Amino acid sequence: MGFLVVLGGGESGVGTALLAKAKGFKVFVSDKGIIKNKYKEVLIHNEIEWEDGMHSEDKILNADVVMKSPGIPDKVALIKEIRIKGIPVVSEIEFAAQFTDATIVGITGSNGKTTTASLTHHILKQELNVGLAGNIGDSFAKQLLEEDYQNYVLEISSFQLDDIASFKPHIAVITNITPDHLDRYDYQFENYIKSKFRIAENQTEADYLIYDADDEVIVNHLKNNPVQSTLLPFSLEKVIENGAYLEEDNIKLTIDNKELIMPTTSLTLEGKHNVKNAMAATTVAHLLKIRKQTIRESLENFQGVEHRLENVLKINKVQYINDSKATNVNATYYALESMDAPTVWIVGGVDKGNNYEELFPFINEKVKAIICLGVNNEKLVNTFGGMVDVIVETQFMTEAVKIAYKVADSGDNVLLSPACASFDLFENYEDRGRQFKNAVRNL
Q1: What would you measure as the largest C-alpha separation in the chain, in angstroms?
Q2: Domain 3-90 has what CATH class?
Q3: 440 contacts 398 by C-beta, under 8 angstroms
Q4: Are 17 and 29 in contact (CB under 8 A)?
Q5: Known binder of ligand: residue 114?
Q6: Is residue 110 a known part of a binding site?
Q7: 328 in a known ligand binding site
Q8: What are the DSSP calls for 66-102, one per residue?
Q9: Binding positions for ATP (predicted)?
Q10: Which residues, at least 6 apart from 285, have a Cβ–Cβ distance to it below 8 Å?
Q11: Does 348 carry a binding-site annotation?
Q12: What is the residue extent of each domain of the chain?
């Protein structure tokens, strides 16, 4: 089969290595950082050659194909070398997809993709044999090897889409596109938009693209760059003939003159953005012939995603909410929009070129105090300093929560919604969210 080099010994890298070995490839895993012990053990157990703390270039440049972890940017010198040599560079999603005939639902977007993917999977699994992979849980490659489901719901990031060639989901979903990760796209929003739209680039008219028709970025891009797939938009603002829209308190979905009506009162998840996530998931379920009753029941009992507007505890009539997964401004916009009480807002981390202006109306209307939790909080203090009475800086989660406890009054919310990446003080957004929850439980 050839020689595959895997760059990055994380979940997607090790999953790809296992699948490739099973398919007869010679495999070498190389990570410039240190590979976690749990992954090292898997590589050793499966007799897959690996190295960490370095890249052996001579060996790597002999590859027939390179799978690179989504975390490695294109501008790294080694990646440039590999490309100059004409060695194909693919993502895990691209590599794995060639080994399955399963029906694939691919979900991308700046926000909402984890909730939409989890909700879609939750509905489909009631009646279908279906896996959930991509940016969630076990890697797609590993699931293909171990489970080989007939259907997959994949949460796919723009970084994974950057390195596809032939990957094609039968049903693609774009939840929304707002500026994020611009540091990886030469600070050109247009490059990031194109990257997201690659999810539909190999689709034909027999495939479907589900998208937010209220998102001007998506609508304008489609106008100027038409796709071949059958379009099924969803909207809260306009009537949609083929697709989903909101009529009074009902989601109305029409596909090929078949109509489905779902009351939004049955949604367990609150907030306008979750009505949209439900529209997208319902559209997928309807395309895959899931019964109406099943869809309705699934929407009613879906529990939501950890670290996404997750109610932690109520202490002295103050609700503590963990939204650590809000790693960009748009996600925090949704969080603040759904607050219905005065809010103490914990924000900060690694700023990816954020523009906070769209949050100003909520700050004036709902936020009573701001706690900046980051190594460098200067931009936050300069931006919001004049808008609230209390603005405090800290670099410790326990301290942030203690300050919030002092500032909040009965009936208030304390919201962790950082609008930034977590890598300055935490391992990842999950670590940040768990530290928040632990600090709240220890109050």
Answers
A1: 65
A2: alpha beta
A3: no
A4: yes
A5: yes
A6: yes
A7: no
A8: EEE-TTS-TTSHHHHHHHHTT--EE-HHHHHHTT---
A9: 109-115
A10: 120, 123, 124, 294, 295, 298
A11: no
A12: 3-90, 96-301, 310-441
The token duo for 267 is 């949604």
113 marked among binding-site residues = yes
**111 annotated among ligand-binding-site residues:** yes
- What is the C-alpha R_g of the chain? 22
In this prediction, residue 246 carries a pLDDT of: 94
CATH number of 96-301: 3.40.1190.10
With respect to CATH, is domain 310-441 assigned 3.40.50.20?
no
Amino acid letter at 220? Answer: N
Can you say whether residue 96 is alpha, beta or left, with left for phi > 0 and alpha for psi between -120 and 50 degrees? alpha
* Identity of the amino acid at 46: N
What's the pTM value of the predicted model, to 2 decimals? 0.84
pLDDT digits (tens, 9 = 90+) for 225-274: 999 999 999 999 999 999 999 998 899 999 988 899 998 887 878 778 88
CA distance to 32, 347, 437, per residue, from 20 (Å): 21, 42, 39
Residue 306 has pLDDT above 90, yes or no: no
| Distances in whole angstroms, Cα of residue 260 to Cα of each of 153, 174, 279 | 22, 21, 11
Residue 424: what residue type?
Answer: D
